[in-house]
Amino acid sequence: MPVVRTRFLPLGRRYAAINLFGLVLMKPTAKMSKRLINHERIHTRQMVELLFVGFYLLYVAEWLVRLIFTKGKNYKAYRKISFEKEAYAFDNDMAYLSRRKCFAQWRKYKND
User: Fold this and answer.
1) CA 3, CA 18: separation in Å to the nearest integer?
2) In the chain, count of helices (H) and strands (E)?
3) Quick one: which of 88, 2, 109, 104 has its CA closest to 45?
4) Residue range 53-93, pLDDT digits in tens
5) Residue 48 and residue 43: Cα distance in Å, rounded?
6) Pick from 35, 90, 102, 107: CA 20 to 30 A from residue 29's CA?
7) How far apart are CA 74 and CA 43, in angstroms?
8) Nearest residue to 80 via CA among 106, 101, 111
9) Model confidence pLDDT, tens digit, residues 4-38
10) Side-chain-facing half-sphere of 61: CA atoms under 13 Å
């Protein structure tokens, strides 16, 4: 997975990287850990399953709904997105993708 360091994306202080169509854009100061790369690989698998456009449409729609229910708290809404829940639940498990089932982002995880 290609990684490009840039100061323009991602926006916000709390975010180290953003995955756009399998290309990871990372802040120059962010640490490129195995965990972060695995997190972004999980997102890439989610994107492929939903043919990329479906992933982004569902991601943004879910974020907007979560934003309403968290009363505009962006980071809280972001952490409640199903795609993020899966990625955070398994980003420390380097073998996860080898056993991951399709559409696993819609299963229940510990960090609900």
Assistant:
1) 10
2) 5, 3
3) 104
4) 999 999 999 999 999 999 989 889 999 999 999 999 999 99
5) 9
6) 90
7) 19
8) 111
9) 999 999 988 889 999 999 999 999 999 999 999 99
10) 6
Residue 78 CA to residue 69 CA, distance in Å, equals 12
Q: Catalogue the E-assigned strands of the chain.
A: 3-5, 17-20, 23-26
Contacts of 105-111 with CB under 8 Å at 24 or more apart are 105/46, 106/82, 109/85, 111/79, 111/85
For 63, residues 6+ apart whose C-beta sits below 8 A from its C-beta are 77, 78, 81
**pTM for this model (two decimals):** 0.92
CB 82 within 8 A of CB 106: yes
Radius of gyration from C-alpha coordinates of the chain: 14
Angle at 2 between CA 91 and CA 56, to 5 degrees: 65
How far apart are the C-alpha atoms of 85 and 30, rounded to whole Å?
21
